[in-house]
Predict the structure.
Amino acid sequence: MVSFDIIGNIAIFESKEKENEKRITEEIMKKHKNIIAIYKKVSGREGEFRLRKLKLIAGKNISVTTHKEYGCLFKLNVRKVYFSPREATERVRVAEKINEYKKFQNNVGERAIIFFAGVGPYPIIISKRCDLREIIGIEKNPIAIKYFRENIMLNKVKNVMPILGDVKEKSKEYKNFADFIVMPLPESGWKYLKDAMACLRNGGVCFFYAIGEEKNLYEKWEDKIFSTCKRIGKNVKILDKRKVLPFGVRTWKIRIDFQIED
């Protein structure tokens, strides 16, 4: 059986075997009675919004759905926005880590910024599970921001603010603002490390994501974190590091949690 993702009542699979499409769709619909549309991935992630081209293989020609995750609802268009249901457990882990790190923060840990926030899964999950005063989500895809706003209402969260724009520009408005920053863009998040550090208050914690090779998962990125901190005159402490998900052949999506201090 090929691997597939379920987002709401839509299934999305990846396969190079065209002749087996009918069998694949039959097996998916047999196991998951709620599925009403099945798409096949026909490209990798492309463009600034990390979108895949999808081909409808079976079911209704719909692309808007509402996905349920750990008691939260996320409305989205699978053709127009980035969303990974495989990261559901990771989002909860980050919320749990925020609660853990809050215990030793002198500033109580009141504010968070989520870079590349998409339709709002990280901000909303964190809002539901953490006692924070304010959570900012920055996202440059206007369609994702539209759904982000809808999802704030769907989930009845009061402390989440969606911001439309590029992280490089919008983050300048939040210098020394955040106790926590989440950077869930593993392919190129390193380009925004300096921006994240500028947003963090003294003692703030960053959740940094990257792609690590099996033989050397963390060292390259720890060096990048330390060198960036040194350039801006900050001290850094690595709090945690972990594998998140397989990414490719002998590569992993990883997360490094680090704290900066003056």
Remarks:
- The mean pLDDT is 95.
- The first strand starts at residue 4 and ends at 7.
- The radius of gyration is 19 Å.
- The chain has two domains: 4-62, 85-261.
